[in-house]
Amino acid sequence: MNKNQCSFNYNFSIGIESTFLILLCALLLICGCVIYAQDNRAKLFFDEEVTFKSGSNEIFGILTLPTTEGPHPAIVLLHGSDRAGVDSPYYKDHSYNLVQSRFAVLRYDGPGWGGRSSGSPGFETLEYRTQEAISAVKYLQSRADIKSDAVGLWGISQGGWICQMAAASYDQIAFIIPVSGPGVTPAEQEVYRVEMQSRAMGFSEDEVAKAVLIRRLMVDVFLIEPKYEAVNYDQAKRLGEGPWNELIELVYPQELIDSGQELGSLNKIFTAIKDEPWTKFLHLEQVLPMFKSLSPEQWEVVKLQFRSLMIVDPADYLTKVYIPVLAIFGQDDTTVPVAKSVALYEKYLREAGNKNVMIKIFPNATHSIYVKGEFAPDYFKTISDWLRGLSLE
After folding, report:
1. What contacts 283, CB < 8 A, 6 or more positions away?
2. Which residues, including other chains, have CB under 8 Å from residue 153's CB and lie 6 or more apart?
3. Tens of each residue's pLDDT in the chain, 393 residues
4. Are 132 and 161 in contact (CB under 8 A)?
């Protein structure tokens, strides 16, 4: 079923009632409304194209609104690092399910994505993305059909960090729903991801160790104070001869290395190992073209940007979140350390004195909260029931 078209999931006999329904459907189509069938019930809502400013960028979005009388509470959907836009089925599914809780739902294209938002796609700091999320909230709060004190954030993966950061820095956000939002730093999350995805692929212990060692070195190359130096030396010694030794000399130099030399050596090492099976989850096919396109001066800028990304610590933000939190995780997530993230959410939010917290782990669910290719049973119901309990309508 195309969710952008009218659809019905019931039968009716020819007569006055059916004639009225046909006319109503035609009117709704003319007005741009959408009828979306879910659980054998027809729910009415409509999509409105909108734009809002974030810094110098004009952001294009689609606001899905209930046809019930407003003003409505609202949710802003925040992408993961993929930055999939308004046409992504994943975000459409969230819009058309969550609107049934009588919340308006905003999804949007990131800068330069989809051809409708201004700006250029590429590396973004989490600080920029946080300001973008706050701009989206402020835009909704400016509308007469939205309850200005009832606008919250839903964010998947990297969007979970953005939920934390935005809620800590802007006190007019009503609630947050981080989904697979890490409780650890991006540096730790990335190392975990490489290890778990390599294990899931069936690599040997030595192959996993090689991949994890390279990923930790790829973190430390950006940091002024290396995070993994001791463990990296130990692991390299255990593994013996290999490209990791050359990379260690580069990342932990005895003498100052010229930026051009550093960048050239990185490109040489990564090119030499890119076809090794165990590098699959290092995504060198994406890293190398970017590195090879950089000048030494640009490399210094990139290092500064990635440094700021790697050290973002949820402890600095969740301890300042005082609003309702629904944190959702998938038990089989190979991207985020679920057990550790749950423990840290509980610790940091307890330190904040926040008692309005619900943490839900869906059995057998992935990072995207899928079970066998479908959303986990009761995933949307869990969110809807929680939202209803906030009494924001």
Report:
1. none
2. 75, 76, 78, 133, 137, 162, 163, 166, 167, 173, 175, 176, 177
3. 333 333 323 232 223 233 333 333 333 233 333 334 444 334 689 999 999 999 888 999 999 999 999 899 999 999 998 877 899 999 999 999 999 999 999 999 988 777 788 777 666 789 999 999 999 999 999 999 999 999 999 999 999 999 999 999 999 999 999 999 999 999 999 999 999 999 999 999 999 999 999 999 999 999 999 999 999 999 999 999 999 999 999 999 988 899 999 999 999 999 999 999 999 999 999 999 999 999 999 999 999 999 999 999 999 999 999 999 999 999 999 999 999 999 999 999 999 999 999 999 999 999 999 999 999 999 999 999 999 999 887
4. no
- Per DSSP bridges, beta strands 374-375 and 370-371 are antiparallel
Give CA–CA dist 388/164, Å, rounded: 22
Report d(CA 198, CA 191) in Å as an integer.
Answer: 11
What are 241's two structure tokens? 């001869």
| Residue 151 contacts residue 187 (beta carbons within 8 Å) | no
Rounded distance, CA 385 to CA 380, Å? 9
Specify the domain boundaries for CATH 3.40.50.1820 within the chain: 42-181+313-389
Burial code of 305-314, b = ≥16 C-beta within 10 A, e = fewer? ebeebbbbbb
CATH superfamily label, 42-181+313-389: Alpha/Beta hydrolase fold, catalytic domain (3.40.50.1820)
> Which one-letter amino acid corresponds to residue 278?
W
Number of Cα atoms under 13 Å in the Cβ half of residue 249: 7
User: pTM value?
Assistant: 0.86
The Cα 90–Cα 375 span in angstroms is 10
